[in-house]
Amino acid sequence: MPKGTVGLLAFLFLIMLSNIVPARATVGLFQLSNFSWCGDPHVVSCGQVTVIFLVNSNTSNPGVDANSFVQRVIDAANTWKAVSGILFQYGGATTRSCGVDNGAGVDVIGWSTLAGTPPPLAGTTPFTFSGNELSQVTTCFNNDSSISWSVSPTGPLNSGVYDLQSDALHEFGHWVDLLDLSINNCNLAECSSQVMWFQLASATFKRVL
Q1: Contact in structure between 122 and 142 (CB atoms under 8 Å)
Q2: How do the domains of the chain map onto residue ranges?
Q3: Residues near 177 by Cβ (< 8 Å), separated by ≥ 6?
Q4: pLDDT at 66
Q5: What is the pLDDT of residues 25-80, one digit of tens each?
Q6: Which fold has domain 12-191?
Q7: Sign of CA dihedral 28, 33, 34, 36
């Protein structure tokens, strides 16, 4: 999800994908990408989908406690688990990097210095697929010092500080087959408060679906 509130484009790979995925269904205020999990080798079953993710908590970002980071990610995963039918399961710590080029084909959540139009993206969720089946999904939060993160379980947040769990909840939305909401596919007044809105303002909690 991009940092800031005005004119930022998030998840460029998803925008590109929107040109090649044929038909997408809209359910409520959520737009589906029509990818399934059955192709991912880290999915336990396709009847009751269980997705195992690993977390690399190594970051140079000041103020981010490793244990709190892992817990906020788990909290976000559990929020989606309660409503999506996908049983997200924390598989433990890893030293592998996030990103689809980590060489292991595993579903990793971690940190990376993300390039993008300034100000930089706060997070991104690239994935690989074959046909309509996902083969790997991974989330990277921006390690750049220009972004101040909070991994606190509660508020309030100061201006300029971004809530990790709120962004993680947005990123996991992509794990459950959802695209970003924007003025291109949703009414601004209706959708800007939603978790899948493509922008996240600082000092903002979006922890409820």
Answers
A1: yes
A2: 12-191
A3: 32, 33, 34, 35, 36
A4: 96
A5: 333 445 555 556 665 555 555 566 788 999 999 998 888 999 999 999 999 999 99
A6: Collagenase (Catalytic Domain) (3.40.390)
A7: negative
